Amino acid sequence: MFSGIVEEMATVVAIKHDQENIDFTLSCSFVDELSIDQSVAHNGVCLTVVEIKDGTYTVTAMKETLDRSNLGILKVGDKVNVERSMIMNGRLDGHIVQGHVDETAKCIAMKDADGSTYFTFEYELNKEMARKGYFTVDKGSVTVNGVSLTVCEPTDNTFTVAIIPYTRENTNFCNIEVGTVVNIEFDILGKYIARLKSFE
């Protein structure tokens, strides 16, 4: 379980393809604090640490994860938003994030807002998935590349988020431009409500 408050950006230092899986080796400041089997969110995707060596750590992404996320297009040198799992005796500064990315979205617009930036993202329109809670609502929560954000101006398949300078400088939003593919996780509460309504 995560909060969507990114700790830092890790750097991809190696990528190894193993049949349908991919092993990603990364470096970041807290490698020495990690342990094998620990969960770390990478661009919002919960992955398990499988190796720690020479100041780096390795995680494995399986085909299902690669099909639903942007991890398969990562390259050596790319910056990835990382967050370790929540400590349950602390404050929840973001929102409840599972680390189970639902799908990808594409940045279709950027607009300056007196120092902050509005980013608009578009995802595949699927009415059946929307009935299951895969949608956004105004002032609701959404996770983009692991960052907990508040939605504004949602449509059937787009939403906009406002990024303050601190967030843009300290997450890989600094590299997002029109055309960039990001991971999104819709709010789990909406999914539960949609599921309950399906029994009515």
From TrEMBL:
Catalytic activity: 2 6,7-dimethyl-8-(1-D-ribityl)lumazine + H(+) = 5-amino-6-(D-ribitylamino)uracil + riboflavin
Domain Lumazine-binding: 1-95, 96-197
CDD domains to which the protein is assigned, alphabetical: Riboflavin_synthase_like (cd00402)
GO terms for biological process, alphabetical: riboflavin biosynthetic process
InterPro entries: ATP_synth_asu-like_sf, Lumazine-bd, Lumazine-bd_dom, Riboflavin_synthase-like_b-brl
EC supergroup of this enzyme: transferase
PROSITE patterns, A to Z: LUMAZINE_BIND
Enzyme Commission designation: 2.5.1.9
Keyword Repeat part of the UniProt annotation: yes
Pfam families linked to this entry: Lum_binding
Gene3D superfamilies: 2.40.30.20
Lumazine-binding repeat feature ranges: 1-95, 96-197
Domain of life: Bacteria
Keywords associated with the record: Repeat, Riboflavin biosynthesis, Transferase
Pathway the protein takes part in: Cofactor biosynthesis; riboflavin biosynthesis; riboflavin from 2-hydroxy-3-oxobutyl phosphate and 5-amino-6-(D-ribitylamino)uracil: step 2/2
MF annotations from Gene Ontology: riboflavin synthase activity
Function: Catalyzes the dismutation of two molecules of 6,7-dimethyl-8-ribityllumazine, resulting in the formation of riboflavin and 5-amino-6-(D-ribitylamino)uracil.
Entry-linked NCBIfam families: PRK09289.1 (NF006767), ribE (TIGR00187)
Alphabetical list of PANTHER family matching this protein: RIBOFLAVIN SYNTHASE, RIBOFLAVIN SYNTHASE ALPHA CHAIN
Protein name: Riboflavin synthase
